[in-house]
Request: fold
Amino acid sequence: MSNVTKVLIANRGEIAVRIIRACRELGIETVAVYSEADRNAMHVRNADRAYFIGPAPSRDSYLRIDKMLEVAKKSGADAIHPGYGFLAEREEFAQACADEGITFIGPKPSSIAAMGDKAVARATVTKAGVPIVPGTEGEGDLSDDEIIAIAPQIGFPLLIKATAGGGGKGMREVHSPDELLQALASARREAESAFGDGNVYLEKLMTGARHIEIQIMADTHGNVIHLGERECSIQRRHQKVLEESPSPFVNDDNDLRRRMGEVACRASSAVGYINAGTIEFLVDKEKNFFFLEMNTRLQVEHPVTELVTGVDIVKEQIRIARGRKLSREQDQIEMNGWAIECRVNAEDPYNNFMPSTGLVTASILPTGPGVRVDTGVYSGYTIPRYYDSLISKVICWGETRGEALLRMRRALEEYKIVGVKTNIPLHQNLLDSHRFLAGQFDTRFLEERFEMDRQSTPHPEIAAILATLVAHRRGQEAAQIVQRGARDTSNWKWVGRYERMHR
Amino acid sequence: MKYLTTLNDKTYLIEINDDRHVAVDGKTYEIDLEAVADQPLYSLLIDNQSFEGFVENDDEGWRVLMRGDLYQARVVDERAVRLAKSAGGTVAQTGDFQLKAPMPGLVVSVPVSEGQAVKKGDIIVILESMKMQNELKSPRDGTVARVKVKGGDTVEQNQIMITVSGG
Reply:
């Protein structure tokens, strides 16, 4: 049994606040760390102790393993929660904690390493009988001739991906064999210039596929359970924007959910996984599902699972880290109702999603039945330019998907953030989209088949009146309005003017 | 005051005479406008219907963000439209520009004199009308050729007050 009495949160923003909340409820002391840009951040204010760790850029502060360990020692923290991002999926950080005798609230370093390397991860889960997206990765570097020979076995359409890849660089879609050679050349060229490595591999292109992931929890006693799925197909530039649980695609297909859950548990057991983790799948139209990758950490979108299962995932993570058994067994997990999460980002949806930083002059949060907001932003807080643009997560629960959607619409209308631009209008438009409401969407929906500019704007006259009233008011305030009789200057001047007028 | 507000290719004539009423194309509504917490976020009650929206302006005009919809509006003072019309619509960059009185009024002052160089946007006449002083500006760079009015003069609508020659 490990002692967890004082937790250092090696993170910032809403997730640091979220973890502090869990610790508070468990009576555990909290230690925050902050950079030069974050003295006024919510997590610093909410924690029991807070330590300065360096300049604003992450590499000088939130990514410094040595600083984290130094603060842990100084503050007497016996455990570290990494949150997501920053050091969460760095094997050497988990290892360094273990070396110092500090409990890392997360998986073992070896599990992080195994899932971090794409080729190793695919090979490992394949061995455990988990289906993967068909492709040539793991076969080493192939020549153009070899690729042309293998391509028909994978089948068209397919995707050329850079081995060293990321961010869509060196990625090409190929729909027929005669396009292959040209696409190969341009993908290699792009990969070479982006990563200094022109090696590519092939992967089957799944059209109309959805991104659905399974939350798993595993304890040190060999118990592994799953908490159902999350639908994450609504993405922009590979960034999730809106998530829900259950997935409208899986919905009442309990058999599919059970099979995906079992495969997810098997994949995590294959790397000896402990603590909370997520297995991402691509699911095609025929409900075939393929392993994509495993996220060896707490996910941004974990609250939707919390709302439908009733499990507090962060508290459960701490429970596991303390060496105790999972609080529930698989047959005690039931998905109740529907939950939706909207990620509210500081970006302008009307100006190509340009990031928006600066002072938040007002923040009026939505409240009321079935609404949860996880945020680190408050009125008077300045959003720094050094970190991600996530302002908050609005999570709504309803008995049905319909109720959850309507509740989210209501909540977003209540939510007012002034000072920075946000993508709330994007969510509001999405929640009016018939295809989205009907659950008919895949991973390309948001970018390819969704438009922000709606044809019908329902209150043009009201908007015209509002604009005019405000323009009028500003005009009155700005112009030096001098009413006759309300003299703006000395009486002597007025006498002078009067006399000149009557000469 | 009257405004011409254009939104979605439709122009509304909006008249604001007091704080409580607004007339849109002749139809009068009872209104109440409050800024929320001193922010560019406004609560509008219009005939007891409640709306809330963000309102801001930029070079393009006014942007109203309301219930997840963005509206772009252009708001012009009706008198400014008349001024533009009386000045012959769009003003050419060369030739003489004659500043005509956009409305009857009292010349408060003429801050320029003949022969003086002026820049576009410089105030050349301050005209008092409808209980308000209006700053009339030069529409372009040039030289003041003739000044036909002086402070204290009463002018009729369309009376030529100042001539600015180009170049």
User: Anything to note?
Assistant: The first strand of chain A starts at residue 6 and ends at 9.
